[in-house]
Amino acid sequence: MQVLNLEGTEDTPKIMLDQANGIFEISGRSLPEDSAEFYRPVLEWLEQYSSAPNPSTDFTFKLEYFNTASSKLILDVLSALEDIKGMKISWYFHEDDEDMEEAGQEFSELVEIPFEFKTY
Amino acid sequence: MAQKLILVYQGEFTQESTKSILAMAERNLDTTGEDSSIRRKVFNVMVEALQNIVKHSDELVDGSVRSHTAIFLIGRDEKSYSIMSGNPIRNANIPNLTKALEKINSLDKEGLKEMYKEIIKNTTISEKGGAGLGFVDMRRKSGEKLDYQFPEMNPEYAFFCLKVNVSREKE
Questions:
Q1: Are residues A73 and B123, on separate chains, in Cβ contact within 8 Å?
Q2: Domain range summary for chain B, segments of one domain joined by +
Q3: Alpha carbon distance A24, B96 (integer Å)
Q4: Residue B6: its H or E element
Q5: What's the whole-model pTM score?
Q6: Which CATH class is domain B4-167?
Q7: Count of the separate structural domains present in chain A
Q8: Per residue in A9-33, pLDDT tens?
Q9: Could you give the percent of chain B with pLDDT greater than 70?
Q10: Which residues of A1-120 form beta strands (DSSP E)?
Q11: Chain B neighbours among A 30-59 (CB < 8 Å)?
């Protein structure tokens, strides 16, 4: 499957989705003007991936900041991941960023996927 | 107490101007050595306030003049930051906005959390705004009530003034 690799910018996160190397990561800042448009390729990639996923998938969120418009799309991404067997989320937050930790906990309450919380 | 204004912007609001304003404010907060968790909260409230203007500010039509102009300010004193915004709003849109803001201000921490989860779960991505999600977030991150007014501009429009305080004292 083709790798989806988007460089991060000041208002969009870095995206790396690479099935062959087992790298699945969204990191950085997410405050795009049109969050639905930005996350569309991610959701499309995941839809394709879900038809023939790896035996286990460790999906990393390492966000420094996301706006409320992105939070809905992050939930859409998580909902897409929910249907994939062997899924695990690694939710990273800066050690003094309680809001990001809490945001991860709230997402974990909205989907049925194991979350592991890690600091950076 | 007198507040020192650290940033004032008046004009057209777009995603591009939002990015410039954020970059300027961030630089200011960096150079003053503000605590990182306070910095993040201020940044958070700024983004939601700015994107609210970009997405929701009503176009002011005055005769042949159409304008999207609005204002955004950040003030600071010893105790807190104030993030303030002002934009035209059609009088017809005030009741719904007031209702949403009153509800958000009436909720406690738990209630706000539930409301946030409810909105992100149940609204679709195609909708223009977020059913007040930005306001919920500003209220949660700041921990303070949203302060708002609607002074009249003319028979058709008012000016929606919003002020959100972020305390500089660590919890």
A1: no
A2: 4-167
A3: 41
A4: strand B4-11
A5: 0.91
A6: alpha beta
A7: 1
A8: 999 999 999 999 999 999 999 999 8
A9: 92
A10: 4-6, 14-18, 23-30, 57-66, 87-93, 115-119
A11: 31-33, 35-36
